[in-house]
Amino acid sequence: MIITRTPFRIPLGGGGTDLPAYYSRYGGFILAAAINKYMYISVNRPIVDNLVRVKYSLSETVSHRDELKHDIAREALRMMDIEDSIEIVSMADVPAGTGLGSSSCYAVGLLHALHSLKRNYVSLHELAEEACELEINRLGKPIGKQDQYMAVFGGIRAMTIDREGKVTIHMVPIDNATMDELNRNLLLFFTGITRPAENILKSQSSHIEQEKKDVLDNLHYIKELGYQAFEAIKTGNLTELGLIFDRHWNYKKRLHPEISSPYFDHIYEEAKKNGALGGKIIGAGGGGFFLFYIEEKHAKLRQAMSQLGLREMRYHFDWEGTKILVNLFNGLR
């Protein structure tokens, strides 16, 4: 048996500029942090038969990988040239559809486990690019590249993406005091609403391809805010980071009508009334988690969000990225 652990992530700046439709024209920039909430994948070779078993929110048992309904598992097995005789089980700290990058965590964690099973060495960049190839090119998911890279590398990272799709990723220089303050002041609250991101992301990509000026202007400004957020963290000016979040949210809402709603706008305004300098919905929007930056009166904000029915998810940053927790595979069936 092999078990991998892969972190979820929270975006801090530049979201949307990692979509192929955007970076292939203008280049992208992403700022994000991995957190200690994880996707766990276990892989095993069955002893008594040659069946394929995949357990997630459903359970599948089939004779051949091509019969699987779980698209990521099916495509990962194709990429690794495994047709049968495999068991895959997944568990996660956070459900799908919450904007924390769960599908990419699954892809990265499974590919990592399968490479270990086959005793293949791949670099971190290769693993991230394989996950991008699986989700974006093979499955045609309308997503960007930040989720896969953050799942692989962990940490607080800045990513630049050139027009050919090449990703350069590096750790944001941050001292321990700033890191502790950032962790203390960034609060996550679950709205209780899960949703697929595909419709919003497909619409954004289509508008980029059509060169709609308002969408492009908003994304250009969001990328600029990403650079500003990077400088704010690097220099320890976290008050400015909170104010950047506020500007970012007002521009992000303009990208698609389903990103926010009167209910979400009310949550945001109540958060600001209770001390938040700024915030955002994590991921494409429409549900999932709100992330707020607050420097004082944390308890007041927590109480206000609780009264609105939101549940806080406490966390710390993850610095390891995807890793093998258990490897008991001896090469024999």
Give the helix proportion (percent range): 40-55%
Characterize the largest beta sheet: strand count, sense, and whether it forms a barrel: 8 strands, mixed
Total tally of structural domains = 2
| Unreliably modeled segments | none
- H and E string: EHEEEHEHHHEEHEHHHHEEHEE
What sort of overall outline do the alpha carbons produce when their principal axes are compared?
globular
Q: Tell me the CATH architecture of the largest domain.
A: 2-Layer Sandwich
Strand segment count = 12
Given this structure, which CATH class of the largest domain is correct? Answer: Alpha Beta
Strand content: 15-25%
| Overall pLDDT confidence | 94
**Structural class from helices and strands?**
alpha+beta
Q: How many helical stretches?
A: 11
* Termini gap: 11 Å
CATH level 3 topology of the largest domain? Ribosomal Protein S5, domain 2
Radius of gyration: 20 Å
Descriptive report:
There is one protein chain. The protein has helices spanning about 20-25, 70-80, 100-115, 125-140, 145-155, 175-185, 200-210, 215-235, 240-250, 260-275, 300-305; strands at about 1-15, 30-45, 50-55, 60, 85-90, 155-160, 165-170, 185-190, 275-280, 290-295, 310, 325. It is α+β, with helices and mostly antiparallel strands and about 325 residues long. The chain has two domains: about 1-175 and about 320-325, Ribosomal Protein S5, domain 2, CATH 3.30.230; about 175-310, Alpha-Beta Plaits, CATH 3.30.70. Helix 3 (about 100-115) packs across helix 4.
